[in-house]
Amino acid sequence: MKNQREKENSYEEYQYRSIEPGDILYGPQLAGSVIQQIAKLDGIERICDLGCGNGYLAERLGLLGYSVIGVDASESGIAIANSRSCGNIGFLCNMFDSVLIEKLKDREVDLVTSLDVIEHLYHPSDILNVAHSVLKTGGRLILTTPYHGYLKNLALSILDKWDAHHGVHWDGGHIKFFSVQTLKQLVEDNGFVVQGFLFLGRAPWLWKSMICLAKKAE
Asked: Which of 53, 91, 113, 186 has a Cα-to-Cα distance from 145 of 20 to 30 A?
């Protein structure tokens, strides 16, 4: 019989079927906002995209001249991503674990990105542990996840959207729901200094996404 940790880590692959982002309407906007933030950082050449899916963000970064390694546990996603592979972009199919850290140990990077991945993990510290291990000292982290806060949660309740937002009728989906405070605490508990948050989508305090900007502690 599997122990509790093994049960919690059981993984059912997300099936990618196209080269488009998972959220075809909002995905390009989120990726564009992250790319804008990367452009503001000095000394960024090597990037690791954790939870790269089908390689959408990695390809956009590669076209801008960055050297990118994308990682995802989805075989279908990596198969599509490999069709985008070129000299400065490569991909690995792997979970966020010690095996991945070993594979990436010689690829010390300047920046780790992870777009809307952490909310799908039973153990969200795993992805931060990998990020911390592969980043050079002082390296940067850009992490996005859906925004949750008091006013947004209140609005969901008043408008009777709470059940729809936290739907349980389908397999997979979001496991964790982060506020600014809880995400900041988690990131800092795993060896980073949070430098700020940006917000995207909808109206103020009802934002769709938050973007956490952090730096590996020295």
From this structure: 91
